[in-house]
């Protein structure tokens, strides 16, 4: 398949127009015209991931986080980013990122997270585009009320997280859940305002936790990695199935080397 055809498949799931204005999704390395026989799906284009992709014979990496985000001032091969680009270009590996467009898309990162933690009646959470009604984050309900600690344990096991951190903002049982994958602490107030019993996200800081307690909402921080990594398998399965339906030969493999950068001792 042409790289462009793979891009078209991804953009059918996660149209680029859904992305936030500050974002940088799309083809970041390579050419739409190059042939792609094998795609490697990952969260981050790191050196270990690129090395795994190249060893697997992949021609294209599809990532969630854009490896070029704030622009480039140089391509210095003695530094990490330049070495990574040199490695990718010398092996003719294209890089494509589907970031906030994949967060917002139906069936994207947040829907995958909502399904993984057991939510039903899932709807949008924070509107990003009034005209289309597109939303980042999701709200939904657990089939039954449960203690906060039980839900936290459920999140931890379903996401395969090494640890979850819990902020107890009230002592009620939880059923209505708001969530935002990755770094979603900015929406704690919105989750409280919308009447969620608990808000699930990653990258929560001390003062975010303080705000949650003051607003009386429970928060579970399951980590940036654990709230987003489940989409890797879903995106890979999507590309496999769609290319098969088009009767195209496309192999799809997933990142097996990346782990959360945080470890808990
Ligand atoms: Zn992220």
Automatic annotation (TrEMBL):
Gene Ontology cellular component annotations, sorted alphabetically: cytoplasm
Family: Belongs to the GTP cyclohydrolase I type 2/NIF3 family.
InterPro entries: DUF34/NIF3, DUF34/NIF3_sf
Keyword field: Metal-binding
PANTHER family: GTP CYCLOHYDROLASE 1 TYPE 2 HOMOLOG, NGG1 INTERACTING FACTOR 3
Single Gene Ontology MF annotation: metal ion binding
Residues that bind a divalent metal cation 1: 65, 103, 224, 228
Name of the featured protein: GTP cyclohydrolase 1 type 2 homolog
Taxonomy, superkingdom: Bacteria
One protein family per Pfam: DUF34_NIF3
Residues that coordinate or bind a divalent metal cation 2: 64
């Amino acid at each position: 398949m042409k790289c462009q055809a793979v891009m078209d498949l991804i953009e059918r799931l996660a149209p680029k127009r859904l992305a936030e204005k500050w974002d940088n999704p799309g083809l970041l390395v390579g050419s739409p015209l190059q042939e792609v026989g094998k795609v490697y799906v990952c969260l981050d284009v790191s050196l270990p991931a690129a090395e795994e992709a190249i060893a697997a014979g992949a021609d294209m990496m599809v990532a969630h986080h854009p490896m070029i985000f704030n622009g480039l001032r140089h391509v210095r091969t003695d530094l990490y980013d330049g070495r990574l680009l040199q490695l990718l270009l010398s092996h003719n590996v294209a890089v494509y990122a589907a970031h906030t467009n994949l967060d917002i898309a139906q069936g994207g990162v947040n829907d995958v997270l909502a399904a993984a933690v057991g939510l039903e009646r899932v709807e949008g959470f924070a509107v990003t585009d009034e005209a289309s009604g597109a939303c980042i984050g999701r709200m939904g309900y657990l089939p039954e009320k449960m203690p906060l600690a039980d839900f936290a344990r459920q999140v931890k096991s379903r996401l395969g997280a090494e640890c979850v951190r819990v902020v107890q903002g009230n002592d009620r049982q939880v059923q209505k859940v708001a969530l935002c994958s990755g770094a979603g602490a900015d929406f704690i107030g919105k989750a409280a305002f919308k009447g969620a019993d608990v808000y699930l996200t990653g990258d929560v800081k001390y003062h975010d936790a303080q705000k949650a307690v003051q607003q009386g909402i429970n928060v579970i921080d399951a980590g940036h990695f654990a709230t987003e990594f489940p989409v890797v398998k879903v995106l890979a399965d999507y590309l496999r199935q769609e290319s098969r339906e088009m009767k195209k030969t496309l192999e799809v493999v997933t990142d097996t080397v990346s782990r959360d950068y945080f470890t808990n001792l």
